[in-house]
TrEMBL record:
Biological-process GO terms, alphabetical: lipid transport
GO CC list: apical plasma membrane; basolateral plasma membrane; chloride channel complex; early endosome membrane; endoplasmic reticulum membrane; recycling endosome membrane
Similarity remark: Belongs to the ABC transporter superfamily. ABCC family. CFTR transporter (TC 3.A.1.202) subfamily.
SUPFAM superfamilies reported for this sequence: ABC transporter transmembrane region, P-loop containing nucleoside triphosphate hydrolases
Membrane topology classification: Multi-pass membrane protein
Catalytic reaction list: glycodeoxycholate(in) + glutathione(in) + ATP + H2O = glycodeoxycholate(out) + glutathione(out) + ADP + phosphate + H(+); 17beta-estradiol 17-O-(beta-D-glucuronate)(in) + ATP + H2O = 17beta-estradiol 17-O-(beta-D-glucuronate)(out) + ADP + phosphate + H(+); 3',5'-cyclic AMP(in) + ATP + H2O = 3',5'-cyclic AMP(out) + ADP + phosphate + H(+); glycoursodeoxycholate(in) + glutathione(in) + ATP + H2O = glycoursodeoxycholate(out) + glutathione(out) + ADP + phosphate + H(+)
Protein name: Cystic fibrosis transmembrane conductance regulator
Short name of one Pfam family: ABC_tran
Length: 1293
């Protein structure tokens, strides 16, 4: 039974069912085998982590830096050392095989038809050749399978450690690294472990084998062999030097790649803003610059690779040439057996010495770079874990106690310049201190009880809404329902296609801002914690929802728990038990609402201004109106419970499945790929070069055989001529034979090097041009594409796939072409010697073609599964990094680690299958080669009568080289096809649909729009062709210089109005600005003429100057003035390099409010006639809000301003207010605020009432004031001269 089991294991026949399935249909994830327990991510990672922790402690004791390499060796050396035995056996057989070959050829040299003993002996040698071929086939693949599996284990363990580390980075450490860098560690750096394990053993096997070969050659051809060995010895250090240089270029390129991916990350994340600002060109230039540098490094390293490859092919030729030139010149005669034993021995040792040994050195040096990078990351500061739990016996009140607390984000800069706080309000910093994210320098901070936290910028992770709310807790239906109701999510769930099982895309792409905020809050409320930290959860929602959340949730469900609420909305302060007023990081006042009002701190003046005039005694009765508004409210909110987010809710799970193309890769794709790199003429030249090189290669060996044959004829016939009476033995004309031999060797060298370099040049150029095309296509595609494709998927194209095109594909492609030509050469030589060998070759080729198709069908699917199984690993990492504080506050690190391990295991399943399937195939192919060798060897013996020793030698020595080469060539062809899927994915993205052109023939006049009159005429709008219509038949006109407020429930399509105006998707109907139809002009002409202050302020990595003025159109003075006007001048002046300071990733060293101000400064700089403000003040405190409002009233007096607002007080003094209703996507009312407030049944009146009584009184007062101070225009046309177009619209409206 055991031998059968062993055979099955060696031939991997347990894979056959999988291949059968793969042949019939496309493989899915469920078809893969579960990962073996010893390959599980958690098990491997924890083991390595244990060793690493031990090493860190020991290093700290010995006062030295810890060594990661040492840890790796300690953890894996035993199983890996055992594999060395396989290599040893394999290499020994490789050396013995040429000896058998030599004896076989000798039989033909001394051929005597009557000597039967010699024949039997020859049969023995032939069997020896065939057997050693077979043993080699098995050993080789056993070894490779096991070392690659070891490599996989090391990589998986490393990834586990990197992720684990990422979860506990302190804020200071987060400033020293970026998401891009961590993703790069996981995607590229750990891959070196997969490669290095393959070659390491050759570091010791190589020299041993070389010594053995040298001995055998000495016996065979004497001292001449030293000449050949000398060439080998010279080749080794040159190749090692190439390797060194190569890794130098590689690490330079890696840094540039990091940079490019980071920029790409920002471009994809901020694509909406980039489009609205019409900033595609500077970003395109930025990426192209980085890419150009990167490509120049890649080109250099590719040329090195090309030289390396060509020298590898030419090495054997040079060695044999030098050996035999020396041998003949020393006066020896050449013979077939000597020639071919030498050729075979050299080719045995050459592979090890010129390929495996240098590869080992190269991979080792690459691994050292990676290990260094990973070690630096693993040694970053971690956050100090504090235990906030209770001891069992204590039954205390949960509490937070703070005294004389002083904290710095960054000890060095005490100004408010931090690596990574999400916001700079001291309030948020206070919460971070309580959470333990902000290290405290002095003072006391004691927390008793379990904390939970809702962040200011809502964070959701990819998954269902339910999984986002439960966050690892059990589902208790009643409690869950209660939380949904309290967080006003009930109605949303009814509206979403799959209810709470709707999939949220990357970074919550499918939810509106308000919905994200409420899901974020619901997650916090669902946890059973002792203390709730709420960082401004009410700012992203409108007043009605805010009130509902405050009453039902914060003062409802949570009423018996301590809550620390950071808020800018002062109407809720009366309900607080205690109020802390913070100003610029200091506590200014503290006490109850009434105490503070009596104390007359600055805060109350702030309050009074907010509340407007009110009776001094109103304070005491503040409770009763609250309960009244509550009851009205609850009716409204339960009926309409805020339908939000429908503006972006396509039906069905919105994140589209990643496309995974099926079937074979068409010839068309190869043509596209090659034509991207060069024109047709160059390509024809390349093909010719390839054939010339191969012809020279074969002819050189054939000449040697021919020479040996001629020599033998002389030896046998022993022709003696009589010259002048002296007997002279006739000799061959050495000069003639050597001259042609030298010429052929030279040709082989020249053509060999030329073809390698030219091919690499073409392929790297192809990668460059495809990248540029893909990037331009991404920039030009409509925004909807980014709503349905998660950022990880787009980045995967730019990191993984472009990485393949840059490095792996050119090398594999060139390798495949060269090997393919060599295989044809081998078969041609064999057929020219024994023509009938073509007969058994036909069935072999048929079997081979079937096997290849059979294998590729499955292998390609496995490979595709592998690359799609990779995406979740990266997506999970980047979403975890975004929600780091939340994950830590909820103590969910372990759960996220387990999810990560599960994703890794899924990837390992496909990777393991990929390893096993490729070995399954290789064993079968090598088996076929062994059959070919056997046929050739025994065929020569059977036809011994018409054979020449030289031809036999040529045919057999070539057949033996076919062994590893054939299966490698076929695997490379499969690899090329697999890697072409990357080309396919890139090409797919170069052909995305694109938006309207940036510039058209019809250019608006340069001073347009001079007035800022905007007219909507029957405009309908939806985000995608099959999406729901968000605006229906909308008609409206915004007069020049008018300030219009746009209000409506969350999701009433307020932002869609902006999208239609900016043509983020093409609206139906007509929009005119100053009488010009916007759909007729180019997008850039349109977008550059409107300024927007977006809902989420986006800053990009780069200098402050680049962020304000990427086109460098403004003077320094303009920039400073703009900063002055938004009160950021002082902040920027405090930065180390002022305007030239490079901002942290996505501007995280500024608070949300400050980032908002930067966006305002951009608008101030643009001096456009039209300004759109999209809920810009939702996340800022009243002071910043007021600052923004004043700047707008002052700087944009002459402009048409459309404000989409949550806070009614920001728009109550507008000229007119547009009230949108969700249900029909239409306008409910559009008039002056005061006029709207007279209609007590109107939605606007109800919205004002919901803000609370005092607020309502104040709002009415402001509206009345604004109404009275306004001068009424006499003309109906908003003061614009009767422009034909517009008059028609006046009547239409």
């Amino acid at each position: 039974m055991l031998p059968v089991a062993l055979c099955r294991k060696k031939s991997r026949s347990w894979l056959n069912p999988l291949f059968r399935i793969g042949y019939k249909r496309r493989l899915e994830e469920d078809d893969m085998y579960k990962v073996l327990p010893e390959d599980g991510s958690e098990r491997l990672g924890e083991e390595l982590q244990r060793h690493w922790d031990h090493e860190v402690q020991k290093a700290a004791k010995d006062l030295r830096p810890p060594k990661l390499t040492k840890v790796l060796i300690k953890c894996y050396w035993k199983p890996y050392a055992v594999l060395g035995i396989f290599t040893l056996i394999e290499e020994v057989i490789k050396v013995i095989q040429p000896v058998f070959l030599g004896k076989l050829i000798q039989y033909f040299e001394k051929y005597d038809p009557d000597n039967m003993d010699a024949l039997y002996e020859a049969f023995g040698y032939a069997a020896g050749v065939c057997l050693s071929t077979l043993i080699l086939a098995v050993m080789h693949h056993l070894y490779f399978f096991h070392v690659q599996r070891t490599g996989m284990k090391v990589r998986v363990a490393m990834c586990h450690m990197i992720y684990k580390k990422a979860l506990c980075l302190s804020s200071a450490a987060m400033g020293k690294t970026t998401t891009g860098q961590i993703v790069n560690l996981l995607s590229n750096d750990v891959n070196t472990f997969d490669e290095v394990t393959i070659f390491l053993h050759f570091l010791w096997v190589g020299p041993l084998q070389a010594a053995a070969v040298l001995g055998l050659l000495w016996v065979e051809i004497g001292p001449s062999c030293l000449a050949g060995m000398a060439v080998l010895v010279i080749l080794m250090p040159t190749q090692t030097m190439f390797g060194r240089l190569f890794s130098k270029f590689r690490s330079k390129a890696a840094a540039l790649t990091d940079n490019r991916i980071r920029t790409m990350n920002e471009v994809v994340s901020g694509i909406r803003i980039i489009k609205m600002y019409a900033w595609e060109k500077p970003f395109s230039a930025l990426v192209n610059d980085v890419r150009r540098e990167e490509i120049s490094k890649i080109m250099s390293s590719s040329y090195l690779r090309g030289l390396n490859m060509a020298s590898f092919f030419a090495a054997s030729k040079i060695i044999v040439f030098i050996t035999f030139t020396v041998y003949v010149l020393l006066g020896n005669t050449i013979s077939a057996s000597r020639v071919f034993v030498a050729v075979s021995l050299y080719s045995a040792v050459r592979l090890t010495v010129t390929l495996f040994f240098p590869s080992a050195v190269e991979k080792l040096s690459e691994m050292r770079v990676s290990v260094r990078r990973i070690k630096t990351f693993l040694l970053l500061d971690e956050i100090v874990k504090s235990s906030h739990g209770f001891l069992q016996e204590e039954k205390q009140e949960p509490s937070v106690e703070i005294q004389d607390l002083i904290c710095y984000w960054d000890k060095v800069n005490v100004q408010l310049l931090s690596p990574v706080p999400p916001s700079h309000f001291p309030q948020s910093s206070l919460l971070s201190a309580i959470l333990g994210e902000l290290p405290h320098d002095k003072g006391v901070l004691k927390v008793k009880g379990q904390l939970t936290y809702a962040s200011q910028q809502p964070w959701v992770f990819p998954g269902t809404i339910r999984s986002n709310i439960l966050f690892g807790k059990e589902l208790h239906p009643q409690k869950y329902e209660k939380v949904l109701r309290a967080c006003a999510l009930k109605r949303d769930m009814e509206l979403l296609p799959d209810g709470d099982l709707t999939l949220i895309g990357d970074r919550g792409a499918t939810l509106s801002g308000g919905q994200k905020a409420r899901v974020n809050l619901a997650r916090t409320v669902y946890q059973d914690a002792d203390i709730y930290l709420l960082d401004d959860p009410l700012s992203a929602v409108d007043a009605e929802v805010g009130r509902h959340l405050f009453e039902q949730c914060i003062c409802g469900i949570l009423k018996n728990k301590p809550r620390i609420l950071v808020t800018h909305q002062l109407q809720y302060l009366q309900a607080a038990d205690q109020i802390l007023v913070l100003k610029e990081g200091h506590m200014v006042a503290r006490g109850t609402y009434s105490e503070l009002q009596r104390s007359g701190v600055d805060f109350t003046s702030l309050l009074k201004r907010e509340e407007g005039p009110q009776a001094p005694g109103a304070e005491t009765e503040s409770r009763s109106p609250r309960s009244r508004t509550l009851s009205q409210n609850s009716v409204v909110s339960h009926t309409s419970s805020i339908r939000s987010g429908t503006e972006q809710l396509p039906v069905g799970p919105t994140v589209v499945e990643e496309s995974r193309s099926e079937g074979t890769i068409g010839v068309g794709l190869y043509v596209k790929y090659l034509k991207a790199g060069a024109n047709i003429l160059v390509l024809i030249g390349v093909v010719l070069l390839q054939f010339l090189a191969q012809a020279a290669y074969v002819l050189q060996d054939w000449w040697l055989a021919y020479w040996a044959g001629e020599q033998e004829k002389l030896n046998v016939n022993g022709t003696v001529t009589v010259q002048n009476g002296v007997n002279v033995t006739e000799e061959l004309n050495l000069d003639f034979y050597l001259g042609i031999y030298a010429g052929l060797t030279g040709a082989t060298l020249i053509f060999g090097f030329a073809r390698s370099l030219v091919m690499f040049n073409v392929l790297v150029k192809a990668a460059q041009s495809l990248h540029n095309r893909m990037f331009n296509s991404i920039l030009r595609t409509p925004v909807h594409f980014f709503d349905v494709n998660p950022i990880g998927r787009v980045l995967n194209r730019f990191s993984k796939d472009i990485g393949q095109l840059d490095a792996a594909l050119p090398w594999t492609f060139v390798d495949f072409v060269q090997i393919f030509l060599q295989i044809i050469g081998v078969v041609a030589v064999a057929a020219s010697v024994i023509p009938w060998i073509l007969i058994p070759l036909v069935p072999l080729i048929i079997v081979f073609l079937f096997l290849r198709r059979y294998f590729l069908q499955t292998s390609r699917d496995v490979k595709r599964l592998e690359s799609t199984a990779r995406s979740p690993v990266f997506s999970h990492l980047s979403s975890s990094l975004q929600g780091l504080w939340t994950i830590r506050a909820f103590r969910a690190e372990e759960r996220f680690q387990n999810t990560f391990d599960a994703y890794q295991d899924l990837h390992s399943e496909s990777w393991f299958l990929f390893l096993v399937t490729s070995r399954w195939f290789a064993v079968r192919l090598d088996g076929m080669c062994a059959v070919f060798v056997t046929i050739t060897a025994f065929g020569c013996l059977l036809l011994r009568d018409q054979m020449e020793a030289g031809s036999v030698g040529l045919a057999l020595s070539y057949a033996v080289t076919l062994m590893g080469m054939f299966q490698w060539g076929v695997r490379q062809s499969a690899e090329v096809e697999n890697m072409m899927t990357s080309v396919e994915r890139v090409v797919e993205y170069t052909e995305l649909e694109s938006e309207a052109p940036w510039e058209t023939q019809k250019r608006p006049p340069p001073e347009w729009p001079s007035q800022g009159l905007i007219t909507f005429d029957r405009v309908s709008f939806s985000y995608s062709s099959d999406g729901p219509v968000v605006l229906k038949d909308m008609k409206a006109m915004f007069r020049p210089k008018e300030k219009v407020g746009i209000v409506g429930r969350t999701g009433a399509g307020k932002s869609s109005l902006v999208s239609a105006l900016f043509r983020l998707a093409e609206p139906e109907g007509r929009i005119y600005i100053d009488g010009i139809l916007t759909s007729e002009i180019g997008l850039h002409d349109l977008r550059q003429k409107m300024s927007i202050i977006p809902q989420d302020p986006v800053l990009f990595t780069g200098t402050m100057r680049k962020n304000l003025d990427p086109f460098s159109q403004h003077t320094d003075e303009d920039l400073w003035n703009a900063l002055q006007e938004v009160q950021l001048k002082s902040v920027v002046e405090e930065l180390p390099n002022k305007m030239e300071t490079v901002l942290a990733e996505s501007g995280s060293n500024f608070s949300v409010g400050q980032r908002q101000l930067v966006c305002l400064a951009r608008a101030v700089l643009r001096k456009n006639r039209i300004l759109i403000i999209d809920e810009a003040t939702a996340n800022v405190d009243p002071r910043t809000d007021e600052l923004i409002q004043t700047t707008i009233r002052d700087k944009f007096r002459e402009c048409t301003v459309l404000t989409i607002a949550h806070r009614l007080n920001t728009i109550i003094d507008s000229d007119r207010i547009l009230v949108r209703v969700l249900d029909a996507g239409q306008i409910h009312a559009y008039d002056e605020p005061y006029t709207l407030l007279q209609n007590h049944d109107g939605i606007f009146f109800k919205m004002v009432q919901q803000a609370g009584r005092q607020e309502a009184v104040a709002l009415l007062h402001s509206a009345k004031q604004a109404y009275n101070s306004r001068s009424r225009p006499s003309t109906t046309n908003g003061g614009v001269g009767a422009d034909g177009n517009l008059v028609i619209f006046e009547t239409a409206l």
